[in-house]
Amino acid sequence: MKVLAAMSGGVDSAVAAARAAEAGHDVTGIHLALSRNPASYRSGARGCCTIEDANDARRAADVIGIPFYVWDLSEEFHEDVVEDFLAEYAAGRTPNPCLRCNEKIKFAAVLDRALALGFDAVATGHYARLRQGTDGQVEMHRAVDDGKDQSYVLGVLDQEQLRHSLFPLGGSTKADVRREAAERGLLVADKPDSHDICFVADGDTSGWLREKLGERAPNTEGAILDEDGTELGRHEGTFGYTIGQRKGLRLGRPAPDGKPRFVLDIEPVSGTVTVGPREHLAVHGLTGIRPRWCGTPPARLRGTVQLRAHGAEHPAVVTVDGDGVEVELLEPAYGIAPGQAAVVYDGTRVVGSATIAATRR
Asked: Domain containing 338: what range?
């Protein structure tokens, strides 16, 4: 097969490209230039999307012995990922930019271009497994390494995208991958993993949101209220808070019982943030919109849902009705916010995902 290997500059994508080439595929490496100003994105140990990463990817391609190119998708990334992230926070929701990037950039813009250029598949360094199902469809399953499993952020992929995807690392552990990289002579063998949000240069998401949204957010300041409506403090923008947040509230008075308060609700129109005890964060059900299914959509499924990238699985009953998804959680989940993704599993198999529109307590 002709395979396009997306190479971020990290160890995972380098080993994935090497494995694809070793398997006999005709591999071409590409690095995605996602920043209109690479110096504004992360660098060093927290890196992703930097000039340093592009150079690391190019050196890895040279060692593997495959052609290498840089594709400029900075405009698409800014519009579909960065602007979407800003709009969601301004509306009081909590988005996951990695899912949006996988959906709109890595497995839409890149895959579409790859197929148009005559490639058969795109290979990435994601930790997930693909296998042929009994119905002939391609199934995506959790990775062998639970600590590195990335199936949650891939839950937006549909069947057509999965048919043209390769995840060579799904059956390996991170330790195995680093050891193999060193044996192959790849200089990124010991390069630290990137983490947090790649387009927030210093890691201060609240500060970055305040800078970007301060002038266009509907409320740059407002009240922090207790559940009975008592004002406990003031804030400089609802976009600086997320459901379930405990730290950084800077309240003027402690709770009557002395226990920590958590953000329970965010109302961007009125500019109010409501706080209360942790037990009031319990969510027993949710409504999902914009579902994306990895295969045939289920009508009703008793399985599990994962609600955060590194969160636990929650036993649930999932009911699909047209473009809506209702999830009954069989055990309560805490700190779940609209805008997050609910990824549905049947055992280790990823069924699909939906964006949380509302929660029920």
From this structure: 281-360
CA distance 43 to 28: 25
Q: Which of 343, 273, 352, 290 is nearest to 84 (CA)?
A: 290
> What stretches of the chain show up as alpha helix (H) in DSSP?
11-22, 51-64, 74-77, 83-90, 97-101, 110-116, 159-163, 174-183, 205-213
Q: Is 198 a catalytic residue?
A: yes
- Locate 131 and state its tokens: 């296998």
CA-based nearest residue to 301, from 356, 342, 355, 358: 342
Q: What is the pTM of this model?
A: 0.89
Tokens of 310: 């590194």
Q: What is the pLDDT of residue 50?
A: 75
On whether 115 is known to bind a ligand per the annotation, the reply is: no
- 133 has binding-site annotation: no
C-alpha span between 175 and 167 (Å, rounded): 17
User: Do 135 and 16 share a domain, yes or no?
Assistant: yes
Of the residues 48, 49, 98, 101, only one is catalytic, namely 101
Burial of 201 (0-12, 13-18, 19+ CB in 10 A): middle
Q: What are the pLDDT digits (tens) for 46-99?
A: 445 678 889 999 999 999 999 999 999 989 999 999 999 988 888 888 888 988
What pLDDT score does 209 carry?
Answer: 81
172 is in an annotated binding site: no
The answer to whether 209 and 86 are in contact (CB under 8 A) is yes
Amino acid identity of residue 166, one-letter, is L
Active-site entry in 48, 49, 98, 198: 198
The label of the residue with tokens 């998401």 reads: 205
- What is the distance between the alpha carbons of residues 48 and 74, in angstroms, rounded to a whole number? 13
Residues 145 and 51 in one domain: yes
* DSSP characters over 311-360: --EEEEEEEEETTEEEEEEEEEEES--TTSEEEEEETTEEEEEEEEEEEE
Residues 119 and 132 in one domain: yes
* Radius of gyration for the chain, computed over Cα atoms and rounded to the nearest angstrom: 21
The CA–CA distances, whole Å, from 110 to 33, 73, 117, 162 equal: 12, 9, 11, 13
User: Domain check: are 152 and 296 in the same one?
Assistant: no
